Amino acid sequence: MNAVYKILGLPAELLCKVPGIGPIVKVCCTSVGQKILMALTGLSLCGFLVAHLGGNLNLFAGKDAFNGYAEKLHSLGPLLAVAEVGLFATFLLHIGLAVSTTAMSRAARKNEYEKKATKQSGFILPNGGASNLMLVTGLIVFAYLVVHILDMKLNVRGFPGASEIPGEGDKFEHVRAVLLDFKTAVFYAVCMLALGIHLSHGVRSACQSLGISHPRWNKLISIGGVLFAWLIAAGFTSIVVWPWAVVPH
């Protein structure tokens, strides 16, 4: 595994030698720098989730409302493509930073864990277990993103309503057809549970990494993060349930 980390770290090592940006790259390669970058990418993805959920809730307003929303998005043309590439790159960077910081933490605390293991009488998950599941839930959400793109954008499984021409086709019926596939609906629902778990710890952790921490605020930030996490998860889960509970099939 160490060999893999060394290979993945080669681009950073080369960039560290480039005049001008070398010092910045060096800071970003430290555990503190990576945690700050992970916090920034994580919070930016939270912003995307809010916007994406708001748009997708048009499904409850009916076919015309949702298709109109989809048409407005596609009318952005190249800007939409740039935004999509940027979003995917941000997600990949966030996952990569998570893997890197996890590896650093495990290497630094290896001896501490060995000492604690002899003192613990049982298996306890701190913070409701969310902090111990960040990497796992993050990878589950990434798997969801890949499947979601394959279903909704590329339509590799051939669901009705899609069109080979961007911006055309019945997006409302396409989304409905995807979610009426039972296996897909179950997978999406499980992924939304993972998203809720991930965000419930991630928002607070991101604030701490950015120095947003104070004895008077920490409790409020923690509660706010949990509420945000489960409101987002519940919102997307309601969309998964939507065609089964609201629209006749």
What would your notes on this structure say?
The protein is mainly alpha-helical and 249 residues long. The longest helix has 31 residues, at 78-108. The radius of gyration is 21 Å and the shape is globular. It is 74% helix and 0% strand. It has one domain: 3 helical TM bundles of succinate and fumarate reductases (Up-down Bundle), CATH 1.20.1300. Helix 8 (134-153) packs across helix 10.
Outline the fold blueprint.
Blueprint: H1 2-8, H2 10-15, H3 22-29, H4 31-56, H5 63-74, H6 78-108, H7 110-119, H8 134-153, H9 171-179, H10 182-209, H11 218-245
Describe the structure in brief:
The chain has 249 residues and is an all-alpha fold.
User: How many domain regions?
Assistant: 1
Which H/E pattern describes the elements?
HHHHHHHHHHH
Report the portion of residues in β strands.
Answer: under 5%
What structural class do you assign from the helix and strand content?
mainly alpha
**Total strand count, please?**
0
Keyphrases for this structure?
11 helices; 0% strand; 3 helical TM bundles of succinate and fumarate reductases; 249 residues; mainly alpha
